[in-house]
Amino acid sequence: MSSCHNSHTNMDINGAETKTSDTHLPKKPKLSPSFISVPEIQSEFSHHDQSIVRINNGSFGCCPSAVISAQQNWQLKYLSQPDNFYFNELKKGILESRLVIKKLINAEHVDEVSIVDNATTAAAIVLQGVAWEFSLGKFKKGDAAVMLHYAYGAVKKSVEAYVRRAGGYVIEVQLPFPVNSASEIVSEFRKALERGKSNGRRVRLAVIDHVTSMPSVVIPVKELVKICREEGVDKVFVDAAHGIGCVDVDMKEIGADFYTSNLHKWFFCPPSVAFLYCRKSNECEDLHHPVVSHEYGNGLAIESAWIGTRDYSAQLVVPKVLQFVNRFEGGIEGIKKRNHKIVVEMGEMLVKAWGTHLGCPAEMCSSMVMVGLPVSLGISSESDALKLRIHLRENFSVEVPIYFRAPKDGEVNLVTGYARISHQVYNKPDDYYRFRDAIKQLVHDNFTCSLLLL
What we know:
Number of strands: 14
Order of helices and strands: EEHEHHHEHEHEHEHEHEEHHHHEHEEEH
Protein name: L-cysteine desulfhydrase
Helix content: 40-55%
Strand order of the largest sheet: 4-10-9-8-7-5-6
Organism: Melia azedarach (Chinaberry tree)
Shape: globular
Radius of gyration: 26 Å
Strand content: 5-15%
Structural class: alpha/beta
């Protein structure tokens, strides 16, 4: 007798016979996830000044309306009942944010993640710890600290304030710009380490940018950290103010002792919030928040979570931000890849229109690209760069940073001015076309920076 139901013989992808039964209905096909639409993106950023071409996300970031609303809810929780907020809500909320960050950066343990105001605060924490090493005699006076010439200005000041004052010998890695390959950076970094080890010194600290701010270039951090390990550098601190949401951030792969990144630049948080990663070791126990409060001595993460009465709301919305980025295909990884692709395309469009060049190869760009400006604009100083930036803002409603690159001896008629363009999800191609046309108009009008008064 036959079975009470029919069976059919099919072939699987490997050619083997399989049987399926008519009595079991096929599973419903999975519906494609509904990702955020263009109108929804525009709505999330409708609070932006729509009259301004905003291609400078790199400086201050952006925050969607959904996250602003979540932040306001946290602020109202505090204002409505401060005692309940501080004693029952704050610690739990900060821990939830740290757990999100831990997963995003592939840290080993949540204790390695502290939340601070910004990357500048994180740098002060790390460099203050290095200063104590000198003061206590663990490092010898004259031992070296190496940092990039293009390190962020505030971090340079922190190195000056903490490390040099404590007796450290500071060496700056001279980087080329425009840069043609990562090997140029690696070569200059090795030279700086050799200088640091001369005269019997030891290199105690290396400060390495992940993405330099101005000019903007992605630094081969994994290779430089590996070199530091081979050369016996005691501590490696990666300053990645532009890191999370902009480049690949994986603590286990990078291997630095300390790593910091802002979350308000490329991860849609309100200002100001950043994380400081400290690789779990006994050395980290000696790090402290510069603001000493009641939690002093309970570990950096706990100290940082309470530095007195203040607004902690920006640090509490990280889980909400994760919900926002997951509305995009591929989440933060998808956003990052699309931003990189589009900003490179827009940069190449601009240099073709102006007859110039990019500041580095596409693979060394992040969500920001350095775009050469026409020589005829006459950008001959940092003052000229600032004046041109203001002129573009006030007369063309274009917001974009301008960088002056001093010519070397003997160089003539070369590009000395670069614009750093950014791309974030709210940007449209027309933003870059308007910038293109503004510069073409200036060239057509025989404009030069010498015509501007600061």
